[in-house]
Amino acid sequence: MLKRLSVLALGWWLAVPGYAAVMPAPDVSVNPIGRHLVLNLPQARLFLYQDGKLARIFPVAVGKMLTQTPTGSFDITGIYRAPSWHVPKSIQEEMRRNGKEVQTVVPPGPNNPLGPVFVRFGESSLGLGFHGTNAPSSVPGFRSHGCVRMRNNDALELAGTVSRGDAVTVAYQTIILSEDEAGQLWLTVYRNHYRQSDPSLPYLADTLLAWQRQHQVALFGQRVDDALKQRKGEPVCLSCKSGKAAVSGGLNPLPWLSKMTPSVPVPPPAPAASQPQNEREPASPLPSARAGQRPKAAARAG
C-alpha cells in the first residue's frame, strides 16, 4: 500500500463543491500572537489567522505556470487604495502580440486589473501583492502573472483587516494531513499545477506508519493510493471504516511538514515589475525564498 506513494496526475486545480465547510488548512507554523496570512498555492486559498486561530479563508487566483507565485516568508509592506496599474513592459509586449491596445498605465476604475485595493507583501522590487480584480470569474484558479487576485469584496475586507508588518507565508503543499474532532485521520491531495518536486512525498509513508503505531488504528492503504492518483482535492478518511464517512467538526492540520526546517539561501531581488501609483518605498527585510525557487519580479496583475 504505502510502497506505491508516487506523484502521478499533474494538472489543473479542481474546485470541489460541498467541501468548502471542511477545507483543510496546510501544515504551516503560525504566529501565536497577531495576524498571519498563509497562502497555499495548490489550494488557491488564503488562510487568515488571528492569534494562532483560523479566522477566515479566501478563494484566490495565483500565478499560472509561466508566471508562478513564489513561495517564502514575507511581511505586509503597504496598503494602497484605488491604485493605478503601471503595466510592466512584458505585459505591454503580450498586449502587442495579441493585437490589443498597448496600455502603459491603467487608472483607478472598473477596468483596472488591480481592483479597488492593492496589499503589498515583500519588497516593492518583487512586485507581489494581494489585490482585487476586474475579472471576478477568474477567482479561484491559476491565472495571474504572479500576484494574488481576490474578489473585490474580499480584497477590501483583507485590506481593512491587516496592517504593515503582518506575517505572510506562501507555501506549496499538495499533500495535506488533518485530524477531525473525532480523531480520524484525513488525507487531501491537490494537483501539482507547477509540476514541482514534492518535498512532502518522501515523508508521507513514514508519517502514516507512525500515526498507525501511535493510535493503534489500521489505515486503508488503497485510499492513499487512490487519492495520490486522482488528486481531486477531496478530504479522504484513511482511518474510518467507511470510505464515505463525514468529517466530524472541522479539520485540524496534522503537524508533520512544519517539523522540517531546511536552511535556505536568500537570492537577491529582481527588478521591479508592477507598482501602484504614488507608492513610497516600504522599509522591510528581503523575504527568504524556498529552496529551489527564486523570487519572481514578474508578479503582475492580470
Automatic annotation (TrEMBL):
The Gene Ontology biological process annotation of the record reads: cell wall organization; peptidoglycan-protein cross-linking; regulation of cell shape
Q: Where is the signal peptide?
A: 1-20
Q: Read off the Pfam families from this record.
A: YkuD (PF03734)
Output the SUPFAM superfamilies linked to this UniProt entry: L,D-transpeptidase catalytic domain-like
Q: Which InterPro entries match?
A: LD-transpeptidase, LD_TPept_cat_dom, Transpep_catalytic_dom
Give the Gene Ontology MF terms in alphabetical order: glycosyltransferase activity; peptidoglycan L,D-transpeptidase activity
Give the source's domain of life in one word.
Answer: Bacteria
Transmembrane stretches in the record are none
| Residues of the L,D-TPase catalytic domain | 35-171
Which GO cellular component terms, listed alphabetically, does the Swiss-Prot or TrEMBL entry include?
A: extracellular region
Coiled coil, from the record: none
Q: Report the pathway entry.
A: Cell wall biogenesis; peptidoglycan biosynthesis
Q: Name the UniProt key words of this record, in alphabetical order.
A: Cell shape, Cell wall biogenesis/degradation, Glycosyltransferase, Hydrolase, Peptidoglycan synthesis, Signal, Transferase
Q: Where is this region: Disordered?
A: 259-302
Q: Which family does it belong to?
A: Belongs to the YkuD family.
Q: What is this protein called?
A: L,D-transpeptidase
